[in-house]
Structure formats: structure tokens, C-alpha cells
Amino acid sequence: MLLALIALGLSVQSAQADDLSSLRLNFPVTDQRQELSAPVGRDIVLHLQRNVDSHGNVFGWDFAATDRRLENSPDFFYAFSGGHGPQLQQLYAWHFVEGVFPAERALPVYGYPFEVSIRCVGCQTVGTSGTEVSFTAGTVEVSWRRRSKANPRQVGAFEVVKQRE
User: Fold this and answer.
1) How far apart are CA 19 and CA 54, in angstroms?
2) Residue ranges in the chain whose pLDDT is less than 70
3) Which residue of 77, 81, 130, 148 has the fewest C-beta atoms within 10 A of its own C-beta?
4) Reduced to 3 states, what is the DSSP secondary structure of residue 77?
5) SS3 content of the chain, % helix, strand, coil (to 5)
6) How many whole angstroms separate alpha carbon 55 and alpha carbon 136?
């Protein structure tokens, strides 16, 4: 898989010597590829999907963490399996304009001992709000590391309703 990433022209680098389990993936925020993926651990795969507007301008990227062993694996970035609205694992241009999320964020992989960090370096946008905003420049840096213990598991909608009763 690492060779496939390098063949695609992505930059994958080892992190600092004190955290040998961490890797880094760098690509332009305006990259024209529809999907990218990288192994995070033995079973977890990081998926990135580019989103464009009707004119082909990149307005963002969706990040997902799945377990390769599970058929129809859920996205383990969601703390709550029924979540909606803006999510930390979405890197959207309008989030920058409206100040929804910071340019750098850490995402726990729920139920697994991994954390994925996303950073948008020098990201620039054009447009003023919503779907009319798109990225014009910048670099997405993604790194991941193994934690000493697993993050809590995801909570399903049924469990949330039970907790409220």
C-alpha cells in the first residue's frame, strides 16, 4: 500500500524518531484525485474523498476510518453513529470562512488505539459562504499515531436514547 501511495505522487514520511508508529501524508488541498487511502494500522484504513462543486472547484475533503475486516464498515471517526451537521473529519472550505473548525484537529478512531491529525497549511479560499466557497491553495498534512490504549467505542442511536431515559 505504501508503494501505491508513492506511485500516486503522495508524500508519505516517517514522523519524528520518538514516535516511530506515526506516519505522515501530504497533498495539495486542490488535488484532482477523487479518492485517496492509506493504512493506519493492521486493520484500519484511512479514506479521503474529494468534494467538488458543480464547476469542479474543490470545496473539501471527507475523511473516514474503516476496519478492513468488516464488510460495510462504519466510519470510526464518528463518536455517535447517527451524527449529522458539520463534523471534525470534514475539511471543507466554508468551515474556514465561517470559523466552524480550526485548520488543525485531532480525530480519535473510536474503538481503536489510533489518533489521526489533520492540518491544512496555507489553505486559502474564495467565496463568502456555504457551497460557493472553495479552496484555491494550501497543503493538507495528515498524520496518525498509535495510542497506548483504545479510544472509547462508538455509541449507537439506540444507546443515546436509552441514556436519555
Assistant:
1) 42
2) 1-23, 80-83, 156-165
3) 148
4) coil
5) 15, 45, 45
6) 13
What does the alpha-carbon distance between residue 65 and residue 3 come to, in Å, rounded to a whole number? 20
Pick from 75, 72, 34, 26: nearest CA to 51? 34
Output the nine-digit C-alpha cell for 47.
479514506
Instruction: Provide φ and ψ at 92, rounded to 5°.
Output: -115, 145
Domain spans in the chain, listed from the N-terminal domain onward: 20-148
Q: What type of residue sits at position 106?
A: A
Q: Is the dihedral of CA 121, 89, 22, 49 positive or negative?
A: negative
* C-alpha cell of residue 124: 486559502
Residues in the chain: 165
Whether 30 contacts 136, CB under 8 Å: yes
Q: Read off the pTM.
A: 0.80
**Are the C-beta atoms of residues 114 and 39 closer than 8 Å to each other?**
no
How many Cβ atoms from other residues are within 10 Å of residue 12's Cβ? Answer: 17
Which three-class secondary structure state does DSSP give residue 50? Answer: strand
Q: Tell me what pLDDT residue 81 has.
A: 60
